[in-house]
Amino acid sequence: xxxxxxxxxxxxxxxxxxxxxxxxxxxxxxxxxxxxxxxxxxxxxxxxxxxxxxxxxxxxxxxxxxxxxxxxxxxxxxxxxxxxxxxxxxxxxxxxxxxxxxxxxxxxxxxxxxxxxxxxxxxxxxxxxxxxxxxxxxxxxxx
Length: 143
Prior knowledge:
Radius of gyration: 18 Å
Strand content: 15-25%
Largest sheet: 6 strands, mixed
Strand order of the largest sheet: 1-3-5-6-8-7
Number of domains: 1
Structural class: mainly beta
């Protein structure tokens, strides 16, 4: 989304930008997590909510010039998930419906191809930040 301006947008709690993949229903074929690029946006003072995410709440919005996040160029906004809560990110639920992250962060989609059906069925998946300073000194038992 490039060169878009939002004026007079105080409409009953609606957001200027929304995401949707099979809105209001869990998607059956799309895992979400697409990256959408933004630049040269303008929001007048009437825009109180910039983003509202919908199912599956996995979008990645990349701000080339800082006009979406207000954090400068090469910044990000994405729905809140614990594994995305990293240094450089801040929760801004009322305006951005999730996290906004500065340019020290890089948000990426994770997808598994060619997995066996039901291999992850009823298996909670946890994502851990891999940082050599954290795991570098661990032995195999700790890992």
